[in-house]
Amino acid sequence: MEKKKRRGKHFLRVLAVLLLLVAVLLVSLYLYEHEDDWLSSSQALRIAVHDAGTDEGRIYDVSTVYGTTEQNLPVYEILFTDHTAEYRYVIDAQTGHILDHTTKPTDPES
After folding, report:
1. How far apart are CA 92 and CA 66, in angstroms?
2. Does residue 45 carry a pLDDT above 60?
3. pLDDT band with cut points at 50, 70 and 90 for residue 7
4. What is the pLDDT of residues 21-44, one digit of tens each?
5. 3-class SS string, the chain
6. Which pairs from 17-20 meet CB under 8 Å and 24+ separation?
7. Phi-psi region for residue 96, left (φ > 0), alpha (ψ -120 to 50) or beta?
8. Least confident among 34-48, 56-70, 73-87
9. Rounded Cα–Cα distance for residues 20 and 46 (Å)
10. What is the pTM (predicted TM-score) of this model?
11. Exposed, middle or buried by CB within 10 Å (0-12, 13-18, 19+), for 78?
C-alpha cells in the first residue's frame, strides 16, 4: 500500500512538471508569434514627440530605453529636448499608450 502512495505522489509530481513545461512552451510560442505586435523604439519616440506638440526635426539629446515596470509591463522610457523644454515619457511597448510624462522648461539663459 505504501508503494502505491509513493508512486501516486511521484506520478503527480511528474505530471505537474510536464504541465508546467507545456505552459512555458505555449507562452513562449505566443510571445514569439506576437513579437512584431510591439512598438519599435522609433514608433514610441514618434508618439512622444507628437504628444509633446513638437516635431522630430526640432528635438535633440534623445534617449530611448526599453524596460519593464514593477508589474512586468514592457515600456519605453523616452527622453528628449527641444528649444523650449525637456520631456520624459513612459510608453506601453504593446499598446502605445502614454503611461506617464513630464515636461520641464529649459533654462532660457543656457
Report:
1. 10
2. yes
3. confident
4. 877 777 667 666 666 678 999 999
5. CHHHHHHHHHHHHHHHHHHHHHHHHHHHHHHHHCHHHCCCHHHHHHHHHHHHCCCHHHCEEEEEEEEECCCCCEEEEEEEECCCEEEEEEEECCCCCEEEEEEEECCCCC
6. none
7. left
8. 34-48
9. 40
10. 0.65
11. buried
User: What is the grid cell recorded at 26?
Assistant: 505555449
Torsion angle in degrees (nearest 10) through CA of 86, 79, 55, 101: -80
The answer to whether 67 and 89 are in contact (CB under 8 A) is no
CB 57 within 8 A of CB 50: no
pLDDT of 88: 98
